[in-house]
């Protein structure tokens, strides 16, 4: 991580003099860093880096067509899928506390989907063992964000499929709509096909699309 950051710092110093050729290298390093934070289960940092990549490449993309745009869309789609799995883990951890009712659970899940800084930081710290318990932090998030709540029946004994259902319904009702990455994968595939580019991502995208279709047909 330190080496990649030093490389970014060095490239950025060259940007004023050679902006056109430097931008792609900085963006690729951002993507490498993003994968590193995904491996560490750190949502906030991974999301920041995928956003930084998009910002870094936006003007460059506007000026030219390039297969690198397809590569970015692939990584963005993969990030959304990773993000979904992270959220699902968080939902299961919330429910397993056997401390919240359904209204509170949905409120917390909505906070995750909206990437509210307080709740994302709580889970990032928990997954990196900075904190040992999330119960008090989640209570504080509910109180500070929604005020006092008259708790009803605590949710217990929920299956993984029920956790998936809660998360899917909340995502579907949100502005995001989906985190399956399919739209980004299709954009990536279109760009790779346009440039007749050979990239290992193409096979990964096709596999993802086939898997998604099988799930819909179940």
From TrEMBL:
<protein>
    <submittedName>
        <fullName>Uncharacterized protein</fullName>
    </submittedName>
</protein>
